[in-house]
Amino acid sequence: MKNTRQIMLLFLLSVTFSIAVFLNTTNAIMILSIITYLVTLFSIIFVMMLENRSPHKSLLWIYALIFFPIIGYIFFIFSGQLEVKGHLFRNKRKYDSELLKNKKTFQESSNFKNLSVTQQSLANLVEKYSDNQVSFYSHTSVLKNGDATFTSIKQSIKKAKEYIHLEYYTFKSDKIGQEIIDLLCEKANEDVEIRLIYDAVGSLSLSNKAIKQMKNAGIKVHCFLPLKHGFYNQKVNFRNHRKIIVIDGKVGFVGGLNIGDEYLGRNKRYGFWRDTHLKVEGEAIITLQEIFLLDWAYVSGERLIDEKYFKVKLINDQLGGTQIISSGPDSSLQGIMSDIYYELLASAKKSIYIATPYFVPNKAIRTVLSMAAKKGIEIKIIVPEKNDGYLTQYATRSYFSEMLENDIEVYMYTKGFLHEKVIIIDEKFASVGTANLDLRSLHLNFEVNAILYETESIQDLVKHYQEDIQESTKVNKSTYKNRGLTVRTKESFARLFSPVL
């Protein structure tokens, strides 16, 4: 209904504007068209004002609507502005709140008291936002780069007995993709239940032949927000950026790697691919499972509440905690990942280590980094020297000046393309997942991250981060300040597109 109303308003604006400006009609018809156009336009502006957005953004869109007739409204629709408060996914959110809420129960642990007050505060905040508790009966292993990740994934798939659930932003039918598909088909022939969700935009290169092969083998495959259904509404702007695998409740995977040859460094354009993934065992798998099943219900209509999907083996030898959080436009609380990242960064007492392929932070993130730097906290940020896109590369660099002015160390990874999304705080707790430090991940995409507290895997993350520093070039403050006008222009131009990168 809401989408139909938007199309009707667009049609009405177009027709009345065209009659008033381009057609030679009677004065009465022209005046009626102008009045209808203005009433429609100001009705849109009035509704937008009632949503109480930030004043500068509201004014920007008001100017666009007034001074760029028709085109301004088209951009307004497809930018996601009308739906950023969750209207599109209201039904999904309602379903989320009703289903599975009694299926996810974690064992209490006295180890929570061993966390610092700051860590306890963060864990409580994450639970309040997502209803996901921190688990002390889980184990995480850091998988560095594609070789380790895909080796572990394939080994786990081969051991599957009951079910395999996969959810990916990018799933390609190239060499590694076909290897995974063939393995899945083999397991399907062994009567293992297999379900796959792939994103319509991220998986454009997934061939129809590969999809048919999987479906013929009995694998259930569904596309998240198909483009043909989202072209006339704003769903095209919201993408499922999650990377999740859950197998038999025994092992789960989450992190930065999609399924494609470039993640193994086989793509000449990107070269060596630096990334980080997590293997999860134990209680925390329940949360990964819940996220998948809710998304599955949304794309397929199939509600899975059988107890077998929630059985896990508790890992008792893990002192540290693992907490999974998902975010996206289906949440009633907007900007969850932005708030969690803010609180994570604000929790730092000694150090902040960030590795991200796209550094396009919002004002809140920039502010908390600036405040931390002024407190004397050591802050290091690693981004790739060469990005996978012109706009993302220069938009990222447009924030270097502000960081360097605050004496924040910025490094550009030179060995290849750095794609990991890692934040390490005080070498004591960390975030690993799918969410970049950019406006799209923080506000538009469906994402999932693991927050780690005092786990052994954090030391692996620190070690890998130090190795990444050695393979990076530190950005010199004075040299960067004297960069040429051409570079400054590219950065400023790219920064204009920050909200949709």
List keywords for this structure.
501 residues; alpha/beta; Endonuclease, Chain A; 7-stranded mixed sheet; 19 helices; cell membrane; cardiolipin synthase activity; transferase; phospholipid biosynthesis
How would you describe the overall organization of this protein?
It is found in: Cell membrane. Its EC number is 2.7.8.-. The active site is at 241, 243, 248, 419, 421, 426. One of its GO terms (biological process) is cardiolipin biosynthetic process. The chain has 501 residues and is of the alpha/beta class. It has three domains: 2-82; 136-316, Endonuclease Chain A (Endonuclease, Chain A), CATH 3.30.870; 336-500, Endonuclease Chain A (Endonuclease, Chain A), CATH 3.30.870.10. Helix 3 packs antiparallel against helix 4 (71-78). The chain starts with a helix and ends in a 6-residue tail after the last helix. The chain has 19 helices and 19 strands. Residues 81-85 have low confidence and may be disordered. Strands 9-18-16-15-10-12-13-19 form an eight-stranded mixed sheet, with helices on both faces. Strands 1-8-6-5-2-3-4 form a seven-stranded mixed sheet, with helices on both faces.
